[in-house]
# Entry
Amino acid sequence: MPLVGLFTGLSIKTGQAQPSAQVEVLSETNPQAISLGYKMNTASIDRLRWTQFVPGQSCGNCALYQATRGSTQGPCKIFGGQVVMAAGWCRLYKAA
Ligand code: SF4
# Structure
């Protein structure tokens, strides 16, 4: 009986590691997103608070964006495990 439990546990672990798992879109209400001023669209940026924002900057042309150019969303090195919108922005923006 204990062996069955052990093998069942291994099976579950293997199942969780499948690469087909859905990736969540980062929410603007995520605490880290709030602290970094992340917005899904640059039109929503609080320009009085985030004065470093320069029009034309967006996740899609940020050095930390990890998707191909022209994609609408993709992974970001800052927000691991979630995807950001190419039209978005946060205060850690780095020119590519
Ligand atoms: Fe977007 Fe770059 Fe901020 Fe990531 S680091 S959320 S890609 S602006």
Summary: The first strand starts at residue 24 and ends at 25. Residues 29 and 38 are 9 Å apart (CA to CA). DSSP finds two helices and three strands in the chain. Residues 38, 59, 62, 64-65, 76, 78, 84, 88-90, 92-93 surround iron/sulfur cluster (CB under 6 Å).
